[in-house]
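User: I'm putting together notes for a lab meeting next week and I want to include a structural view of one of the chains we've been expressing. I don't have a solved structure, so I'd like a prediction I can at least talk through. The sequence is below, exactly as it appears in our construct file.
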Amino acid sequence: MIKRISALILFAVLTLSARSQEAKPPVRFAIVGLTHDHARGFIPNALNRTDIQLAGIVETDQQLISTYAKNYKLNTNLFYSSLEALLAKTNVQAVATFTSTFEHRRVVEECATHGLTVMMEKPLAVSMEHARAIQAAAKKGGIQVLVNYETTWYPANQQAYSIIHDQHSLGELRKIVVHDGHRGPKEIGCSADFLKWLTDPVLNGGGALMDFGCYGADLITWLMQGERPTSVFAVTQQLKPAIYPRVDDEATIVLTYPHTQGIIQASWNWPYDRKDMEIYGASGQLLIPRKDVLKLRSGSVPETEKTPVPLKGPDADPLSYLAAVVRGEIKPAGLSSLEVNLIVTEILEAARTSAQTGKRVDLK
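Assistant: Thanks for the context. Below is the predicted structure for the 364-residue chain, given as structure tokens.
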């Protein structure tokens, strides 16, 4: 009898919990800008959700409006010429921005005056000047700023953190090597609107160094638990100047810590797409060739291949994370956080300076 009553109570609790989740109204958000091609994946994912609702899009380019309206069957009434015009007609709780990196500062400063959480595509900013302005605006407006990286939502990366810091299977970290990139944005078919700013040294802050170097800087800073490197040294090249005459297409960044070294290899020249990582400790190594595969070797135990547990809840994807932050269920932390990405920007700016001068940059 007691077991039956306990089972009934458990069933009732789970049922109420499920109904509570269903009863939550969707988080209403707006998109600002469509010149970043990552919007092509973000929009259809958002349209298929019930926990989050796309309430409007701010864009002035009529060709982009026409393209997105046609491709995703969007009502043209969903588009607005400015955030002010959108807010005059509909209420939103957050903004996802798909502008150039240079414009992130403007978007955050505008959203901060309206108390709107902002999620942007990586990286945070083109410079520390912009990054500090974003930080100041967020603090003044009392808003959250999130930076979306594809690699944040890789189950293998999240389990790697646990293996290192919870299970302590590798010992003290010695070397982290991160590879990111593809054959090149033009070669893989990025849109003309995307290429226009992605290959602009001002609007993107650089080329491959900024576009893919940010992934490694983000992951290494996170794995190092927010520790800043003591120095940064970088080499960049233009292996395809006919295609990318204004920015680098090849970059290698070396980060020095008191007991660890980080190496970031960012490229628009890989023969294949890649976002993989190697982590070496004093007593083991962890290889992450794909987002759903880990290869662990620790102590005298032979290498074993592991399949990470799929991510769930707020950590499953950027939309779930954004919704949870807006609802106050979680606070931004780790890979997406402003704190980590301020250090990422510092690393990228130092790397750009190092590549230009040919000298190591020591961080104060």
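A couple of points you could mention at the meeting. Residues 230 and 363 are 5 Å apart (CA to CA). The first strand starts at residue 27 and ends at 32.

User: Perfect, that's what I needed.
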